[in-house]
Amino acid sequence: MTMRNLWAQTDNPLATWVADLTPLRSQPESLLRFVLDVLEEGARYQVLKIIEAPLLGYTAEHGGELGPLLSKLYQEHHVVDLFGFTGAAMAPGHPQSSTAQATLSWHGVNGKVVEGACTDLGALLLRFEPAPDAFPLDCLRHYPPVRVTGRRLEYPPGSREPKNAPLDWPPEVRFSIHSDIWFPWIFGMAHPEFDDKRMFGNRELAGRHTPRLNAFLKAVEAKTLELGGSWQIDSDEIGTGMSPWLTAHGIDLEAEPLAHMPAAALGTEWV
């Protein structure tokens, strides 16, 4: 059996962008505004929609919009939830972990491109396993398409300093991707002819959803800088061989790899 979904979902991030909001530490209202803006941009570009947030007792099906709940949390309890509510590193199925959704494209069972909502790329990929145990577990890690993590900041009444964050701890929000489904070229680490050098083309998929991811990252970057924070890509969280496609603003869809996998390899049988 052949298979066209050659992307993977790994335990370690392939890229992480960081919004450092240290200058806003004593501006809880601005931090809250940042969270609300990120949620708005995530929904606009269909890369980050919170479906469940157990730490807040929130579900999209029954709870309406998440923004008013976060605003109420600050107004009534002086807490800015700077994406601490995602919980348990956003690992689907883990207790108290959130569920986040993005609209992505992948190859259906007939090889045609399908677009749909996804909350767990590892679970999605497993649906297309071409042979028993064809996929190493390292390719099937359970994370959402975009993983956003931060912390909860508690402000005592009348104080502008969070009581639960040491001065040497920067209030930051991290935006990570664990799958190369976003990249135009991928190694196909589970493919029978994988050699860690030649790369398969993935523009057919990436060209559909990655422009929206890039637009989202650029919007969040602009908001971060507007508020006086800083924005960067974490050089310690770049997947092996992925740096040619990564910038502080997103993923470059035009860069070419050093070595191409021959097109005939797509017809290789998985056993």
Labels describing this entry:
21% strand, 4-stranded antiparallel beta sheet, 5 helices, 271 residues, alpha+beta, 14 strands, elongated
Explain what this protein looks like in three dimensions.
There is one protein chain. With 271 residues, the chain is of the alpha+beta class. It has one domain. 23% of the residues lie in helices and 21% in strands. The protein is built from 5 helices and 14 strands. The chain has helices at 28-44, 60-63, 66-77, 121-126, 203-226, and strands spanning 15-20, 49-53, 58-59, 79-82, 99-107, 113-118, 147-149, 151-154, 172-177, 185-186, 200-201, 230-233, 246-247, 250-251. The strands form 5 sheets. It has a 4-stranded antiparallel β-sheet, covered by helices on one side. The chain starts with 14 loop residues before the first strand and ends in a 20-residue tail after the last strand. The model has no long low-confidence stretch (mean pLDDT 92).
Brief write-up:
The protein is α+β, with helices and mostly antiparallel strands. It is built from 5 helices and 14 strands. 23% of the residues lie in helices and 21% in strands.
Topology, element by element:
Elements (H helix, E strand, L loop, with lengths): L14 E6 L7 H17 L4 E5 L4 E2 H4 L2 H12 L1 E4 L16 E9 L5 E6 L2 H6 L20 E3 L1 E4 L17 E6 L7 E2 L13 E2 L1 H24 L3 E4 L12 E2 L2 E2 L20
Antiparallel strand pairs: 1-9, 1-12, 2-3, 2-5, 4-8, 5-6, 7-9, 10-11, 13-14
